[in-house]
Design a protein that fits this description.
Blueprint (H helix, E strand, L loop, with lengths): L18 H12 L2 E2 L11 H12 L12 H15 L9 E4 L1 H13 L5 E6 L5 H7 L3 E6 L9 H7 L4 E7 L11 H11 L5 E5 L19 H4 L2 E6 H4 L8 E4 L2 H14 L5 H10 L4 H4 L1 H16 L5 E2 L7 E5 L8 H12 L1 E2 L1 E2 L12 E5 L4 H12 L2
Parallel strand pairs: 1-11, 3-4, 3-5, 5-6, 6-7
Antiparallel strand pairs: 2-8, 7-8, 9-10, 10-13, 12-13
Helix pairs in contact: 1-14, 2-11, 3-11, 4-5, 4-10, 13-15
The structure holds 4'-deoxy-4'-aminopyridoxal-5'-phosphate and glutamine.
Length: 385
């Protein structure tokens, strides 16, 4: 550049490039098997792609309505009612978003004010705190129980203050793979009853719950649903993370505020994908079959790790498996992930990337949303450790 660019003050001074991008780039550079960033290395259903192509070819290429294509909003409302018994009005209570990341940021910008506090349960997904910071609010980090990695409602209760505007939860949970029980949801409902606190529930892994357990949605409890924004993502459910289509379900009063921001954030989301997804959702089999599909991959991956010195943590849901590596290395988790990528040829994500506090255990996360051949290649390298 010939001329000087004016200096700026960062809105997010502590933020660098996300760990997922960093580890994927490192994996590519070293030809490592990438079990770091969470995305499938296989294609979604060709029928879904055909439905999108057909929508493009038949001329669905202009702006859809701001909150999303009506047929998709109806399909989403129908799916939620069938699975969780809650009836959301497709016109006023469902909005299609550009993935869950946009849904979360828009929800926070719409409902959280400067000076408010938002509780997150740590470890948590890396987009939560920057979104809260951009809203001018303060992130209050409540650690999960260090042994069970489950919510500790006593700690949540202790963190509530007159300034608490919202609590952000995630089930099934990235990175730990735990899923909320009905008792935990009931406990949170009872805790929030006397308050005006909103619940933002990140449920992007809703269809990856194993061993016959059911996904416990915040939207499945009528009382809790009245204060909740439930966020999900088709990228996870249909193996199309690059499409960036998700949605939010919330009572009309909250959704009205959400849409005020959404319309100036993205206005709306690409039309042909929405039409294709609406048609594809007519058949529930693809998402109802997903737990069995990923449970088999989880079991295959865990069986392969059983003979190693990695200690496997439970994995009740998501497509992530956390392991402790204390018997293999004394490196910190970030250094261990770099070494694993560069020297062993397998990329993983350090759990410290999800926490502000120093980790109590040395843990890393592997993504098993991969072809069996990819998992086999990674396992043969990990088994040699
Ligand atoms: N929440 C969680 C817990 C995630 O793991 C992810 C990442 N995929 C997202 C939100 C973002 O989802 P999307 O790709 O639909 O923006
Ligand atoms: N959600 C994915 C994960 O946890 C990553 C998405 C991203 O790269 N931002 O790995």
């Amino acid at each position: 550049m010939t001329f000087e660019t004016p200096a700026v003050t960062s809105r997010l001074p502590a933020v660098g490039t996300t760990i997922f991008t960093v580890m994927s780039a490192l994996a590519t550079r070293h030809g490592a098997v990438n079990l770091g960033q969470g995305f499938p290395d296989f294609e979604g259903d060709p029928a879904l792609v055909d439905a999108v192509v057909e929508a493009m070819r038949s001329g669905h290429n202009q702006y859809p309505p701001m909150p999303g294509v009506p047929a998709l909003r109806s399909a989403i409302a129908g799916k939620i009612e069938a699975l969780h018994g809650t009836r959301y009005d497709a016109d006023s209570e469902i909005t299609v978003t550009a993935g869950a990341t946009q849904a979360l940021l828009t929800a926070i910008l719409a409902l959280v004010h400067p000076g408010d506090e938002v509780i997150v349960l740590e470890p948590c997904y890396d987009s939560y705190e920057p979104a809260i910071t951009l809203a001018g609010a303060r992130t209050v980090r409540v650690p999960l129980d260090p042994v069970t990695l489950r919510v500790d409602l006593n700690r949540v209760a202790a963190a509530l203050s007159p300034r608490t505007r919202a609590i952000l939860i995630n089930t099934p949970h990235n990175p730990t793979g735990t899923v909320w029980t009905v008792e935990e949801r009931n406990g949170l409902r009872d805790l929030l009853r006397p308050t005006g606190v909103l619940l933002i529930s990140d449920e992007v892994y809703e269809h990856m719950v194993f061993d016959g357990q059911a996904h416990v949605s915040a939207g499945g409890d009528a009382e809790l649903a009245a204060r909740s924004l439930v966020v999900s993502s088709f990228g996870k459910t249909f193996h199309v993370t690059g499409w960036k289509v998700g949605y939010v379900a919330a009572p009309a009063a909250l959704m009205a505020e959400f849409r005020k921001v959404h319309q100036f954030n993205v206005f709306t989301v690409n039309t042909p994908m929405q039409i294709g997804l609406a048609r594809y959702l007519a058949d529930p089999a693809p998402y109802l079959d997903l737990p069995a599909f990923y449970q088999r991959k989880r079991d295959f991956f865990r069986a392969g790790l059983a003979s190693t010195r990695f200690e496997l943590l439970p994995c009740e849901g998501t497509y992530f498996q956390c392991v402790a590596y204390e018997q293999i290395s004394s490196l910190d988790d970030e250094a261990f992930c770099r070494w694993l990528t560069e020297s062993v040829g397998v990329a993983a994500i350090p759990l410290s990337a999800f926490s502000a506090q120093a980790p109590t255990r040395r843990l890393v996360r592997f993504c098993f949303a991969k072809q069996d051949a990819t998992l086999t290649a990674a396992l043969s390298r990990l088994q040699a450790l």
